[in-house]
Amino acid sequence: GAVVSQHPSWVICKSGTSVKIECRSLDFQATTMFWYRQFPKQSLMLMATSNEGSKATYEQGVEKDKFLINHASLTLSTLTVTSAHPEDSSFYICSAVFREDIQYFGAGTRLSVL
Amino acid sequence: DAKTTQPPSMDCAEGRAANLPCNHSTISGNEYVYWYRQIHSQGPQYIIHGLKNNETNEMASLIITEDRKSSTLILPHATLRDTAVYYCIRSGSARQLTFGSGTQLTVLP
User: Fold this and answer.
1) How many CB pairs under 8 A join A and B?
2) What average pLDDT does chain B have?
3) CA distance B7 to chain A (A)
4) Contacts for A65-68 with beta carbons within 8 Å, 24 or more apart?
5) Cβ atoms within 10 Å, residue A109
6) B43/A1 CB distance under 8 A
7) In whole angstroms, how far apart are CA A91 and each of A15, A98, A110, B51?
8) Which has the closest alpha carbon to B7: B92, B106, B96, B94?
């Protein structure tokens, strides 16, 4: 199947700093990518939809100024967690839809904010 | 509201078939049934999806009842690496997936 690559897989940062997570579609173009968040022992929750060349669409309750999304090309979307705090510690997962048929997911990024 | 109902957990002996049920009694005519699994600390992995016909691929088989109110994912020969949370999702579009709590499948040696 199609491959979605996510980097880094694990990051630790100090409170107040910003962290950037990259999501790439390796063998297909994705006009739309998605960002999810998963807290321990919970299911995935959609945070935002990333659209190439336009602004992202955020789900209710997700702060757009805190979670900056940039989708500058058809194969790359980035999520920047600004001024991270311990409560932002979570598992962040991106995905992309292949041929409008199947949503493929990245391996995820575990963020720990100290 | 994930709109599907799955048992919270199941066990299966290694080498045996794992049959994971899913209830989606209010599914609409244009909604597909998608199955994903998530191995601990990894992103979800696509398994299979179908509309009304049974489907089979190299990973699994999907059996959808004629009235489409329920389905079963079959892993024909479960291995220890199949231990994961399995999610059954109904959606009219691959762009709109709502994850519920899924079924924790444990394959026992």
Assistant:
1) 47
2) 95
3) 15
4) A67/A35
5) 24
6) no
7) 17, 23, 4, 31
8) B106
The low-confidence residues of chain A, meaning pLDDT below 70, are 1
- Rounded Cα–Cα distance for residues B4 and A54 (Å): 33
- Strand-strand pairing, B9-13 and B103-108: parallel
Interchain contact, B101 vs A43, CB within 8 Å: yes
d(C-alpha B67, C-alpha B26), whole Å: 10
Q: What pLDDT was estimated at residue A70? A: 92
Asked whether the beta carbons of residue B94 and residue A102 sit closer than 8 angstroms, the reply is yes
Q: Tell me how close the Cα of A2 comes to any Cα of chain B, in angstroms.
A: 10
pLDDT at A23: 96
| Cβ <8 Å between B100 and A43 | yes
